[in-house]
Specification:
Elements lengths: L7 H15 L3 H6 L2 H11 L6 H4 L2 E4 L8 E7 L5 E7 L6 E4 H13 L7 H12 L8 H7 L3 H15 L13 E2 L7 H5 L6 E7 L12 E7 L5 E8 L14 H12 L9 E5 L3 E7 L14 H23 L4 H10 L1 H26 L1
Antiparallel strand pairs: 1-4, 2-3, 5-6, 6-7, 7-8, 8-10, 9-10
Helix pairs in contact: 1-13, 5-11, 5-13, 6-11
Length: 363
């Protein structure tokens, strides 16, 4: 039985301190603090109905929210390039209770403050557990139908907007000159034996769990003279590690890719060792395709956000449902859907209440 180690007041203080420092909205704070969530559920879950589901373990996304699922150009294990709807952020993923991954998604969606019913999210999620894939929202469907060549034109424009022939366009707080002396330019160039490194830049720390991670942008040019922006992002322990210990890093990333991005070439979202600096994520920066209308009250945009949130819940269910404990977990939920609803609802309300009270104290 878990004991409550953190008092409600102490957790409110933690929230308030972080909110005062960052001046974030509730939604922004929830989305960018996966470590806090996983620490909270580890240390503050007392006896409750969730215990019926916590035993179903698997690979969780760790930080599910609408901004972390998108349409992207991917390369399959067979080498084919394709437009797919995927999880685009694996930083906080790992092994943990599947149900807590779903609860975090609901918290992230409800924190936006739009009229999206939790029972609808549950229905979409359970359909995913049952391997019933939802039809995508119309806007997502159009993106999935985009040709690879059309998407590459968007990527080329993205690169052109941020660079000149000589290198990066520097902008304070966005793209800054490379001044890191611990990792030499020669060391970085060695990571790209088939490309010419044109320029380097630093991306200032962003808010949230990755704020302290070193981010290096590398402008590379291949033999055909096509340029790409590659991001090297310093590895940090995933958010789920605050809940339970994860496997060694090589085994961890292999398990995460196999469960969350099955059938895709793992080298397109991988960890590499930078000599003298440790592991870094390596991934190409690509043109973003889905603009999440977090703050919009436009009726069409709110409708899209609702449809996308349901699609995300279904997609998360597909990820969980295909894992080894997915069937038993699904059966446990379907045995009493109302108990599942009440158990997850309790945690959602408690966590959001804590966050809202912290925001009021921070103002």
């Amino acid at each position: 039985m878990r004991k409550i180690f953190f008092s409600f007041t102490l957790l409110s203080l933690i929230f308030a301190t972080q909110l005062q420092a960052s001046e974030q909205t509730l939604s922004q704070f929830i989305r960018s603090n996966a470590v806090h969530y996983w620490s909270y559920v580890k240390n503050s879950l007392g006896p409750n109905k969730l215990e019926n589901y916590l035993k179903y373990d698997g690979i969780v996304t760790g930080d599910p929210h609408p901004g972390n699922f998108s349409v992207a150009l991917v390369k399959t294990a067979a080498g084919r390039r394709d437009m797919q709807f995927v999880n685009i952020d694996l930083d906080d993923a790992g092994r943990g209770p599947l149900v807590l991954d779903f609860v975090r998604l609901v918290i992230a969606i409800e924190s936006i403050g739009k009229p999206i019913k939790k029972r609808d999210l549950e229905e979409a999620y359970v359909n995913g557990l049952n391997k019933r894939r939802m039809a995508p929202p119309e806007d997502v469907r159009k993106l999935l139908a985009m040709s690879v060549s059309d998407y590459e034109k968007l990527v080329d424009k993205y690169v052109d907007d941020k660079t000149t022939q000589q290198g990066f366009k520097f902008k304070p707080g966005k793209i800054e000159p490379y001044t890191n002396t611990k990792i030499s330019r020669a060391t970085i160039s060695q990571l790209f034996p088939h490309d010419r490194v044109v320029d380097l830049a630093l991306r200032p720390g962003e808010r949230g769990g990755s704020a302290s991670a070193l981010r290096i942008w590398v402008l590379v040019e291949d033999r055909s003279k096509r340029r790409r922006i590659i991001e090297l992002k310093q590895y940090q322990s995933p958010g789920i590690a605050s809940y339970q210990r994860q496997p060694p890093i090589e085994q961890w990333i292999a398990q995460v890719n196999a469960a969350i991005r099955p059938g895709l070439d793992p080298s397109t979202y991988d960890l590499i060792q930078v000599p003298g600096a440790g592991p870094f994520w390596i991934r190409e920066k690509k043109a973003p395709l889905i603009d999440i209308p977090y703050s919009s009250d436009d009726e069409k945009k709110v409708t899209f956000l609702r449809e996308l949130s349901l699609y995300d819940a279904n997609f998360l269910g597909l990820i969980h449902g295909r894992q080894s404990q997915g069937v038993d977990y699904r059966n446990a939920i379907q045995a009493d859907r109302e108990t599942f609803h009440q158990a997850t609802e309790e945690l959602v309300k408690t966590y959001l209440k804590l966050a809202k009270e912290a925001m009021e104290k921070a103002q």
